[in-house]
Amino acid sequence: MAVERKFITEGVRKARVEKYLSKELKRAGYGGMDIARTPLGTQVTIFAEKPGIVIGKGGKLVHQLTQDLAQNYGVESPQIEVQQVTNPSFNAQIMAERLANALERGWYFRKAGSSIMRRVMDSGALGCEVVIAGKLTGARARTQKFSEGYIKHCGEPSNTIVEKGYAVAIKKLGVIGVQVKLVPAGAKLPDHFTIIEQEKKKRPETGAPVIAVGDINSDEVALPDEKLGEDQ
User: Fold this and answer.
1) For residue range 82-97, what is the model confidence (pLDDT) as tens digits?
2) Which of 39, 91, 114, 171 could share a disulfide with 31, CB 3.0–4.6 Å?
3) How far is the CA of 138 from the CAs of 39, 141, 146, 174, in angstroms?
4) What's the pLDDT tens digit per position in 120-153?
5) CA–CA distance, 193 with 142 (Å, rounded to integer)
6) Which CATH number fits domain 88-183: 1.20.1090.10, 3.40.605.10, 3.30.1140.32, 3.40.190.10?
7) Dist. CA 204–CA 32, nearest whole Å
8) Could you report the per-residue pLDDT of 111-124, keeping only the tens digit for each?
9) Which is nearest to 147 in space by CA: 175, 183, 177?
10) Nearest 10 degrees: CA dihedral of 163, 168, 169, 170?
11) What are the extents of the domains in the chain?
């Protein structure tokens, strides 16, 4: 298999697994997943707000998920690990699912979008962007965007520090797609740096400051011949 075809196949498989887990674990507060190959098989890490629901009674649900990933999605020897999301406001996928759920319950799109953005920013996030697209008020589809704070849209920082979440709200007029982007608190921004001022050291015996060579004025230093002439 060509290298390009291999990357495409892996990407399609990951997208199918993501869609399957998002549907099956909606009640558990699904917050995304991570797939990594190990010598023993494939490590699948599931992030959820309620890990107990993912595991199920006696591990029944997690066992069923393992079988489905191996038989229906071609995941080699899947080993599922569940991690709890301690702060859901910093998980873009959970926020996107909550926004879609609010739209399905009949919330006005402006109120739902601004409410999600305000909750993320009140939790201490550096930036948040909410995009809602579809038939919002009339027969024609349109897009509404809410943003506040710092968000990167291009370059490596947009993939490393920006969390992204997607969800779909199914309504009578049609589907509405929602997208949530956020920069969590503590993220290392590429254009942020701190200048540390150097303090002057003191001699341990006298406590006098140590003068660096660059701090000495050349006019204040007498040459040996000049000092000898002054003594005579």
Assistant:
1) 999 989 999 999 999 9
2) 91
3) 54, 7, 20, 11
4) 999 999 999 999 999 998 888 999 999 999 898 8
5) 39
6) 3.30.1140.32
7) 57
8) 999 999 999 999 99
9) 183
10) -170
11) 3-84, 88-183
